[in-house]
Amino acid sequence: MDKLKEECGVIGVYVKDQNLASKLAYYGLYALQHRGQESAGITTNLNGKLDSIKDLGLVSEVFHEKTLDSLKGHIAIGHVRYSTSGSNEINNCQPIVAQYKHGAIALAHNGNLTNGENIRDMLEEEGAIFHTTLDSESILQLIARQYRKGIESALKNTIGLIKGGYALVITTQNQLIGVRDPNGIRPLCIGQREDGSYILASESCALDVIDATFLRDVMPGEVVIIDEQGLKSIPATHWGQKKLCIFEMIYLARTDSVIDDVSVFEFRRKSGELLANEFKGEADIVVPVPDSGIPGAIGFSSASGIPFSEGLVKNRYVGRTFIQPTQELREIAVKLKLTPLRQTLAGKRVILIDDSIVRGTTSKRIVEEVKKAGATEVHLCITSPPIKHCCYYGIDTPDVAHLIGANKTVDEICQYIGANSLTYFSEAGLKAVCNNQSRFCRACFNGQYPIEVPL
């Protein structure tokens, strides 16, 4: 589908039962599967000895009961990946594990460094050898090289050197460590189970699955260290204004997650509600493009009084890697993923709710299919403003030349996709959903990057 790609998801587990950590990490990764479907991995730590299983594929394809049983340890870190940095090869599967002077260390990383190439060049000039093409490995090398004064000092110095959006889970010796970038662009939260176990995860939905109670989000720039003494917080030492990625709320995060005290479902529902006030036209039904369009459609229907209807059925068994070698088969792939309900759509003026338009190719096909199903009119309403700029903080955005919002007017986009009308959510409306606060990065809409980006 023509969407911004989901970055990655990370999880960390600290438990007393050495047979339980890998299994909790496995179920947590299952809950985070939407954040990356190209590879999955888990590394366990048993008294400083690290073991890993990682491979290309979905969580269910990489792990099996016997493999999970072989991963022993009180600590586990896990990762699901979409390749925003580095190609999708088995060498680039995470967590990344390394041996260094003080033992073994493993790291799982969600995000992207804006100065990753410079850091890598610097390390290679000093003789470092890399085994992956990931900027994550540069972070691991920096931590290991600065460990002589202890892990806290190494982490502080590393945070001072790297720039970008990132959430890290790390294990070394007998510790589980979580790190969030100074701007909080990428999310990371803390949970605890009744047995006292601690969990770190990209989203709170992973905590719910493994019966962990949400405690709080890791603060921007904060480092948390979990060991047998409990949880220790090291506050941010490098200033940064909070700028959570707005697309976590619009599309990337799972609907049942809460990030930085904001319910993803409520954010999307309210966006649809305010978008209804901006729509100028008449229609018979409101239809979401599943799944992320559903809360927005609920809000739109509630505010407008136009009935909500399920008009597109999503096939949940078609993966992103479905073979699409020709244009004809690409068309078939869209039909496999979304099937219109003729009984709902025929003879109706339809408001179609979606979260974003990237290239416009999929929107064009969906509009065509809805009209083929008998809709007399299709009015496409998008719960975000036009995407006009690239992301450098961990979302795989097409080049600006391929962003339709950067190269065409709204009228031109509407004509291209074949809709009767096209309504984007205004930046003023989006700001209202954010309670007029500036704690979200909206650079993909307005080009105002919170951290300098590569030229």
From the alpha carbons, calculate the radius of gyration and give it in angstroms.
22 Å
**Secondary structure: number of strands:** 23
Spatial gap, N to C terminus = 29 Å
Largest sheet: 7 strands, antiparallel
Describe the 3D structure.
With 455 residues, this protein is α+β, with helices and mostly antiparallel strands. It is built from 17 helices and 23 strands. It has helices at residues 21-31, 59-62, 65-70, 116-125, 135-145, 151-161, 204-209, 246-252, 264-278, 293-304, 327-337, 342-345, 361-372, 404-407, 410-417, 427-433, 443-446; strands at residues 8-14, 39-46, 49-56, 75-81, 96-100, 103-113, 164-172, 175-180, 189-192, 198-201, 213-217, 223-227, 230-234, 244-245, 258-259, 262-263, 285-288, 312-314, 338-340, 349-354, 377-382, 421-424, 440-441. The strands form six sheets. The protein has a seven-stranded antiparallel beta sheet. Strands 5-6-7-8-12-13 form a six-stranded antiparallel beta sheet. A four-stranded parallel beta sheet has the order 17-20-21-22, with helices on both faces. β7 (164-172) and β8 (175-180) form a beta hairpin.
